[in-house]
């Protein structure tokens, strides 16, 4: 019975609390989130939305956690290849590995990302999901962000954690819809964001099933790669969820398609929100020219046109990372 | 708050009820389901499983609803092509359509199912998900099963509806994992089985996103077809759910891989169950030689080896379809 009482109590506590988003400064961004959540969950409102349709989707890199100087998954791939190098001495002759060791990323991107895909294969494929999870778990315990010196699962945005909880307390199902690897994010999403594995959608490729010595085994591969970015995001939402979200949170042009899908012509009220990285001191400031990922140009134009909330990280957020 | 009270009340009612599976005759099949559900949901049992991990997967064709003489989706495809024929007079010269009209299914299967894929394309692709749903909804309202004279969403198994409810009342999340089309099943799964769209996994192909005259549009296509059958089932479970189920229900060799994945070497207690179609009078009797789908040979052998429950439809089920 306990399982049914926990959300009930959480909802009661949330209702009683004066401010559901304490890390947000007062202003139109914060207010837009509160107004939206209040109207769709108020059964006497004309904008009421039944619980089953309260689906919210969140990009991860740059929306829930820091994606600069590189998305953490890239650091994982590099670290994993380094870790495996002693067992694979022949890798030393591989141009991609050599480029990586010189921190010369250009060659990795040449020839349709051939080198980068090789690094991803060496760090992600030809292992079981269980082996992969173990590798990510171990890495998360020791790796540190180069600027902040914190574990990558701590360089997450406290104001967005509050939005996640606030939505869930009001009956929303919260999903990640990210260009990051699905298996990668599922290792930490529950503990880090309270988002369970089956609500994590991301980039994926095949995992092949076979019976091996009488045991069922899945082996991660690189074929049938699906990139969950740009138009891929609404396509993945349709494939994995099968209904239109009513709230969508992103930070880059890669999120524009799912923001459009969520907010334009939706028969239900909807909320689109873009986190604009404007805080060079507490985090990073970028839009048109990010270091690696998170380019935001057309998304800002579309935000004006469609009335999406644009969060100015510097002025709208009281704190960035959890204390 | 209502949303939190409903499962609570349902659980209380289920606990108070004497028999959670009234359409099942007493016997080892029924008892195996009850014993499993009781032990995994009893917090004082060594076999207790936390709610988050109580994932149950169900095949659809032949497990939740009747798949004979053909899976209903095939009848839908045929009816939809017939419906569209007047608007597409050139289809009359198409050999697949000609075969269909003569009810001569052989040519549809020749040359790697070329004709059948053409019928599926004409009835499923080049339309939005909303248009597709509308077509299926309209068809379900009028189409009747050739033997039973009932709508296809009534040729469902009452004993399995009881298992679905019983599991959900004990904290299980119930999923469909079927070779049937994902978009097809999502049209009726919630109303018919209480299984919401995001818990329906099936065969799918691409739906392409674009902005068209300023509106977001998804268009169903035929490329990147993923067949959710045999080894594809555990692969899809990993992709969509990201964790191993503890209960798996099927009826054919096509379900064997997901039964193996669920039950062999699972660190949690698990249940595998096969519905054996043994009732020629009330439904159909088939295993090695089904009319179209549902071949069951190696699955029966594997059931013996791995201790899966085999339901004898004729003797284990008091009723087949809902009254």
Report on the structure:
The structure is a homodimer of 323-residue chains. Chain A is an alpha/beta fold and 323 residues long. Chain A has two domains: 2-68 and 156-316, HAD superfamily/HAD-like (Rossmann fold, 3-Layer(aba) Sandwich); 72-142, no CATH class. Chain A is built from 13 helices and nine strands. Chain A has helices spanning 2-16, 28-40, 72-84, 95-101, 106-124, 129-142, 158-169, 182-186, 189-193, 232-240, 256-263, 298-306, 313-316; strands at 55-58, 173-181, 200-203, 207-212, 215-220, 247-250, 271-278, 285-286, 309-312. In chain A, strands 1, 2, 3, 6, 7, 8 and 9 form a seven-stranded mixed sheet that branches. In chain A, strands 4-5 form a two-stranded antiparallel ribbon. Chains A and B meet through helix 1, helix 8, strand 4, strand 5 and helix 10 of A and helix 1, helix 8, strand 4, strand 5 and helix 9 of B.
Total beta strand runs of chain A: 9
- Into how many domains do the coordinates of chain A divide? 2
Number of discrete helical segments of chain A: 13
Which class of the largest domain in chain A in CATH terms?
A: Alpha Beta
Task: Please give the structural blueprint.
The structure is a homodimer of 323-residue chains.
Chain A: H1 2-16, H2 28-40, E1 55-58, H3 72-84, H4 95-101, H5 106-124, H6 129-142, H7 158-169, E2 173-181, H8 182-186, H9 189-193, E3 200-203, E4 207-212, E5 215-220, H10 232-240, E6 247-250, H11 256-263, E7 271-278, E8 285-286, H12 298-306, E9 309-312, H13 313-316
Parallel strand pairs in A: 1-2, 1-6, 2-3, 6-7, 7-9
Antiparallel strand pairs in A: 4-5, 7-8
Helix pairs in contact in A: 3-5, 4-5, 10-11
